[in-house]
Design brief:
121 residues, binds FE2/S2 (inorganic) cluster, mainly beta, three-stranded antiparallel sheet, Rieske Iron-sulfur Protein
């Protein structure tokens, strides 16, 4: 089953909305943000910058609810801090534990001129 469209979620930000400065997100690293009531998880790995609606499909808690360390050391997995569901960091597909058969909802992210914004696609 495919992911829901982020634009249909409550309080979805407008395309182009500012998120944060590029320097606020470590490489590699993750950053959970509240954009006017819309929970966003930014993920930066060696292969790119990704964004997800920060609600784990298991119990709809933020992935970083119990701590900010959700990116695996090899940068391939996001592991929910609540019950350890594992998701592919680049696609959001559930690949381990309670994440299997689930998917994170992707949010397009753009980075230009030292700023991170919501993308348009
Ligand atoms: S809320 Fe994420 S694994 Fe349970």
């Amino acid at each position: 089953m495919g992911a829901r469209d982020w634009r249909d979620l409550p309080r979805a930000p407008a395309p182009g909305a500012p998120v944060c400065t590029a320097g606020a997100l470590a490489e590699p690293g993750t950053l959970g943000l509240d954009l006017g009531g819309f929970p966003l998880l930014l993920v930066r790995t060696g292969i790119g910058l990704f964004g997800y609606f920060n609600a784990c499909p298991h119990q709809h808690l933020p992935l970083d609810w119990r701590g900010g360390r959700v990116l695996s050391a090899d940068e391939r997995l996001l592991r929910c801090s609540n019950h350890a569901a594992g998701f592919d960091a680049a696609t959001g597909q559930g690949v381990e534990g309670l994440g299997q058969g689930c998917v994170l909802i992707p949010v397009p992210i753009e980075e230009t001129g030292g700023e991170i914004r919501i993308g348009s696609s």
